[in-house]
């Protein structure tokens, strides 16, 4: 049985580092601001710890459902902050300067694509 598209299985988490490396190495992308990258990395490491904690909670037969929901909400909030930071950086560093680079149409299409993934 396969996982739902938005479900993260423990075996899937190892691909995150590879995906980040691929994006950073991609020649035609505009790179993420270092401060935003550092903040996102810190938050995602925290998310990883929270998810591992939730998984441990689920192994406990006496776990209280509301406690699980609170932890899932904390994970979602942290992911939302990562998403907000990356999107803000993209708008500030790339969208705002698109006309100067002469790629307004491309950047509008790219922004519309990015908004599809906004958490």
Defining traits:
single chain; about 120 residues; mainly alpha; Methane Monooxygenase Hydroxylase, Chain G, domain 1; 5 helices; elongated; disordered N terminus
Q: What is the approximate shape? A: elongated
| Mean residue pLDDT | 80
Helix content: over 70%
Radius of gyration: 17 Å
CATH topology of one domain: Methane Monooxygenase Hydroxylase, Chain G, domain 1
Number of strands: 0
Treating each run of at least 4 consecutive H or I residues as one helix, how many helices?
5
Helix/strand class? mainly alpha
Please describe the biggest sheet, giving its number of strands, its sense, and whether it closes into a barrel. Answer: none
CATH C-level category of one domain? Mainly Alpha
Report on the architecture of this protein.
It is built from five helices and no strands. Helices cover 71% and strands 0% of the residues. The chain has 119 residues and is mainly alpha-helical. It has a domain of 83 residues: Up-down Bundle (Methane Monooxygenase Hydroxylase, Chain G, domain 1). The N terminus is likely disordered. The longest helix is centred in the C-terminal third of the chain and has 31 residues.
């Amino acid at each position: 049985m396969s996982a739902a598209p938005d479900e993260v299985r423990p075996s899937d988490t190892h691909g995150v580092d590879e995906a980040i490396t691929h994006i950073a190495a991609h020649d035609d992308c505009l790179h993420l601001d270092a401060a935003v990258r550092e903040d996102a990395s810190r938050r995602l490491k925290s998310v990883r710890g929270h998810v591992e904690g939730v998984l441990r909670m689920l192994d406990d037969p006496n776990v209280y459902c509301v406690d699980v929901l609170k932890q899932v909400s904390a994970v979602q909030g942290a992911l939302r902050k990562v998403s907000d930071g990356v999107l803000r950086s993209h708008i500030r560093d790339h969208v705002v300067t698109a006309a100067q680079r002469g790629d307004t149409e491309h950047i509008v299409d790219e922004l519309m694509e990015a908004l599809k993934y906004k958490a």
